[in-house]
Amino acid sequence: MTADTHTHGMAPLTSLDGQRTGASVAVLLLAGGLSSRMGQHKCLLPFDHSESFIEHIAGVYAQVDPAHMVLVANMDMLPFRGQMRLMGHYGLRVLANHSPRLGRLHSLQLGLAAIPPALPVLVHNTDNPFVGVGTVAQIVAAKPGDGYVSPRYKGQGGHPILLSPGAAQMVRKAGKQAILKDVLHRVCRMDLEVDDENILSNINTPDDYMAHFGHMHLAHQVRTHA
Q1: Is 13 in contact with 137 (CB distance < 8 Å)?
Q2: Where do the domains of the chain lie, and which CATH numbers do they carry?
């Protein structure tokens, strides 16, 4: 992993003129899927000996000091909210996705409904826990116009993406049968090259987890069947 990581208790990031970096941006974390390939909720997987994926990710985004931070979670995960110490500490609002089979667009729309329409929105999948503070700040600083920012590493697109208020509103209004990729094709994509290969990482299967975390002796906590 090459991205910079966070340290709890750090002050929120500020720009050169002293303004809060993320004061006019919202963060939407997505964990509303079925996690069928992993066999358990990916956002609750251990990142290290003290944090789960979602705890680590929220801790990084807290340093950007966003105006709102929302997690959309599969309803089945909500009984485990007691494991997420960060909710009160980081002001994370958790929304239930009662229909995970409706797909990613449905989760996005649930989360965007809780975010003021005037704000740009960072969208991050919780199966990528390797978010770097510097990379997030770089994306937040980009100006996508009415479109969205897509971070790239050596030409390949990754996450998080940054939706402009206009792009976020288009997603809000998309029909239930719409495909997110098709919705985003209607707006301009701004490619932002970043020096962070971890924007491409996804942990979708037990093998993926073991490849990244096996050396920390945490892989035994992941079920080895879907």
Answers
A1: yes
A2: 26-210 (3.90.550.10)
